[in-house]
Amino acid sequence: MKKSISKKTTRRNFIKASALFGGAMILPSCATKRVKGANDRFSVALIGVGGIGIQAIRNLKNAPEADIVVGCDVDDDRSAKNYKTLSQIERFKNIPRYRDYRVMLDKMGDDIDGVIVSTPDHMHYPISAWCMAQGKHTFCQKPLARTVWECREMARLAKKYGVYTQMGNQGHTSDGWRSLKEWYDSGLLGKIEEIFIWTSRPARFWKQGIDVKYPKGDEKIPNTLDYDLWLGVAPYQPYSKAFVPHDWRGVRNFGCGAIGDMGCHFMDVPYSAFDLGFPCAVSAQTDPFNDYSWPYSSTLEYEFNSPKGKNGKIYLHWYDGYRKPEHIRGIDDAFLKDKRNADVTVIVCEKETVVTDEYGRRLMVYPNKRMIELKKAKAFPEKTIERSVSPMNAHLEFVKMCLAGKNPNANFGYASTFTEMALLGMVAMTQGGKKIEYDASTMSFKGNKDADKYLASLYEYRKGFIE
Predict the structure, then answer these.
(1) What pLDDT sits at residue 39?
(2) How many Å apart are CA 374 and CA 396, to the nearest integer?
(3) Which of 68, 226, 394, 458 has the fewest CB atoms below 10 angstroms from its CB?
(4) How far apart are CA 193 and CA 182, in angstroms?
(5) Distance between CA atoms of 135 and 1, rounded to whole angstroms?
(6) Residue 5 predicted with pLDDT over 50
(7) pLDDT(349) > 80
């Protein structure tokens, strides 16, 4: 693939500007030339090699159209294993390694077609914005960004610079939400009444809640870690292995809790199938929490105005941690109590009830005997929605769509509105159980300025990363 960059952007080119909520980026215009062809190859930079970065390596290692040409990670120790995996793949041997994505782009920009951003949530926006300004097609892990304002900025910048983009929620590449939409459109399900989603996270995977405290500052930073680069735009706080490299997701300055982790998987199935858009109201009930960490568990209710809903409304109920719904119409209590059903979506409709997993892969009408009856009756509609070019492999879909000269289905235009919807639940957690009404057209809560402030970052971004 011919290189898309026509003008380099250095750190000095970033100018901090005053704008709504502050911290906007004014980036130099960069012409992006998109070329497609059967013999093209797509050159990828991995920003975030350790941890979840292994997904990109696994998903692209057998793809002849993709070349991983450089890696970038602030943690030499955490990334070592994945760099070793790369070195064992002949065409990825001896790729250059960087710690600072800005330096990497300054030095290797002409050799990079697209980037895959796999970092903690607080760096999704600054890194992706920098890359898009360089004319790089940009893949960013979920959630798209840490705040609602950042989500909207990322969609704006993608459009401004004319780059192809994709958020990494692999379930959006599956048949699940597409089949569910076809079922609804065919009349099989009837009007939608309520959606119930529950996940055992964060309880089984990371710590958050009232007992998570600000670090004491008595831990030594490993010499294999560039902690200043890890913090990035976030305000300084002492290093602690309690949140680096893993449990940052529950820390409010860095992550978006279970919503950012699993909400951007689970919620995508009904959101995309039913075109939910933005909720008109959100409320939350949570365990006690503090200014530093998100709560250990929560229950959220999103209210949507929708002609697809019974009486013009659809209610989405979210449970995380140890919480689950106590009763759902049409679902056996034994199903709810079964510990194996720790991560589930249930969609209650007038005619049928649907159950699925986080990615929509195991989509079924409940109970199974009813699913069998409908199959025998040939009640399920034909496929009418275009399927992904690479099911359950979002990284390869990104590469293939870019080479074809098409914007991926989960592009930042879609991902911005979807992630904004999900993050409104995080705002609701700060409101002490109050129901808050949302106006998407003004990006504000009706009569609630306290809630409004949580739509953007509560801290000013550290200098050097956005100017």
Answers:
(1) 56
(2) 34
(3) 458
(4) 17
(5) 13
(6) no
(7) yes
